[in-house]
Amino acid sequence: MKKKINFKEKIRRFRKWQEKPYEVAPLSDQEHECATCGTRYQGNFCPRCGQSQRIRRYSFNMAILNFLDVWGLGNRGMFRTIRDLILRPGYMIRDFLSGMQMAYFPPFKMFFILFAFSLLVTHGLNIKGKKLSELNNESSTELASPTLDAQKQPTLILNQEDAKKVDQVNNLMKRTINHVVRSINRYPNLFALLLLLYISGCLYFFFRHCPNIPDLRYSEFFVSLVYINNMYLIYSTVLNFFCLPILASYTLILSLIPLKQLSGYSWWRTISYSFISIFIMIVILILICTLWTIFTVLYAVT
Ligand SMILES: [Zn+2]
Question: Which residue in 7, 182, 237, 300 could disulfide with 169, CB within 3.0 to 4.6 Å?
Answer without folding.
Answer: 300
